[in-house]
Predict the 3D structure of the following.
Amino acid sequence: MNWVNESSAREFILLGFSDRPWLQMPLFVLLLISYTFTIFGNVSIMMVCILDPKLHTPMYFFLTNLSILDLCYTTSTVPHMLTNICRNKKTISYGGCVAQLIIFLALGATECLLLAVMSFDRYVAVCKPLHYVVIMNHWFCLRVVAFSWFTGFGNSVLQSSLTLNMPRCGRQEVDHFFCEVPALLKLSCADTKPIESELFFFSVLILLIPVTLILISYGFIAQAVLRIRSAEGRQKAFGTCGSHMVVVALFFGTAIYMYLQPPSSTSKDWGKMVSLFYGIITPMLNPLIYSLRNKDMKEAFKRVMKKIFFL
């Protein structure tokens, strides 16, 4: 009996939409299709950016990192979600939950910082084109990307430690599809307000500071673009930055809604849907947004396909 209690304490039950069995199959199909497109789209972008010499620029170096992030981001949650939907007992081990939480938080935070770096890259390209090569040099690009990854994982370790150290008093049922901070905090049998305040502070640093820098960058970009007399030049400048702004709006909008309010104030079903959006749908849309709205990417993809087909 002690062994049963000990083993059950080492796992969580992920409820998801268990109370709505009729949603299981549509959700499985949606996840499978989204994950397939995410893998194909992000791997395609990585392949084209690496194989085509014309895309060996800072912009596409950052885009390659974004594709790696999105691919790992969804892989940390979706395969287990697909498996759980097909099982009667929807569980995850304690170690699996910890790993999922750390990876999901780390990659999410890294993406926030990387999107800010990409906006700075576009600012330099549009506002300081003559100094672009000097400012966005190889070593600078490597350093800012390394900083984004390092900071993302550091933030994840802090937030995960605060969340997992809260007493749960034997509670195991996580009302979510995967292990996420707001859902895990609801298991706590102690006052979570002090922890929520600390987590809110870290979320402000990771979410609001990057999005503020992005808005400032695009404010300067808009001013510079409006000074361009050529309509073709303005269209090209807006086209270059438009895809990035779409990604920023989709990712930050949903993440801010989820993390910058107390867990108790969010509707449980609405919170699940928002998490699915920024954790699964947005990584699937990123390759489509960058490839379909980017002339250079489409031409590079054709060149790479011709080379592969010829070989």
